[in-house]
Amino acid sequence: MEPVPEDWQRGIVIAAHPDDIEYGASAAVARWTAQGKEIAYVLATSGEAGIAGLNPAECGPLREAEEIRSAAVVGVSEVEFLAHPDGRLTAGLDLRRDLARAIRRHRPDLVVTLHHGETWGPGMLNSSDHRLLGLATLDAAADAGNEWIFPDLADLDPWTARWVAVMAPNGSHAVDVTDTVEQAVASLCEHRRYLEALSDEPVEVQARKQIEMVTGPIEGFEAERAVCFELYTFMG
Fold first, then answer.
1. Superkingdom of this entry's organism (predicted)?
2. How confident is the model over 44-63, as pLDDT tens digits?
3. Superfamily the domain 2-232 falls into
4. Burial call 108-124: b when 16+ CB within 10 Å, e when fewer
5. Is the pTM of this model over 0.85?
């Protein structure tokens, strides 16, 4: 198990919904911002369909505000929302184009996205938005470096990231987050209204359980707490 390279300066994290990044990836982000790296968040949706009983027109702005506060806890000040419909992400060129535009604009060395497999584990389905967003991010990372795929992005110079890291079980690389677990817990706690709708358990208890679940020791990697990624590069 190799460490995720850290000889870079700019990164972006691309996710489907507010709160997605906070289920583990934020622990790595907190480590990187403490090193002085510049990280931005790009969210495909505003999570407006994410709270039962709360109208999307009210829910969307609330969840955007929660995400902005959550990002600030781990040192991220730039958060953008692409306004694709929550729960109805569509695989296709519109999403790829918007993500490629974001990659060209931010010009990251590292693009991070989240697990997009069919399941989280036995009997636990992953959502359609997560699956589509992850694959679209991999495609968009390649698209961003090709001047011909989206000629309407010609106002932004092509850009190819050095790596794409997908947070995933059983990945090839890991990040030591031993010193940033508490920041990750605090970051997830900022999604207070969302977590309150999920369970009667106190928000702080929910957040700690979730972070502890995804930041345990990893076989073959010397760290008390770590998160796992699959690391990709592009040949062209």
1. Bacteria
2. 999 999 999 999 999 999 99
3. LmbE-like (3.40.50.10320)
4. bbbbbbbbbeeeeeeee
5. yes
